[in-house]
Specification:
3 strands
Length: 76
């Protein structure tokens, strides 16, 4: 079973960014057509960041670890 509804890498990156937006970790998101050199526009408190697919995938991983790492390590 997979948590991803789309099987290609671009689709998984987009879903990860949409999840971050839905959780309120990022303030906004715009995804441009794939032929753009940096199709991901992520709005953060520091401003608007333009990213390509590789940058967006690493950003998503870092944002999830930063946001949920302490919760995952919490022991009851």
């Amino acid at each position: 079973m997979s948590i991803w509804s789309r099987g290609d890498r671009r689709g998984r990156v987009e879903e990860a960014l949409l999840m971050l937006k839905g959780q309120g970790i990022i303030d906004g998101l715009e995804i441009l057509p794939a032929h753009e050199p940096r199709p991901y526009r992520v709005l953060l408190p520091a401003g608007l960041v333009h990213m390509d697919e590789d940058e967006a995938s690493m950003f998503a991983l870092g944002a999830v670890v930063g946001a949920f790492g302490d919760i995952a390590r919490h022991r009851a």
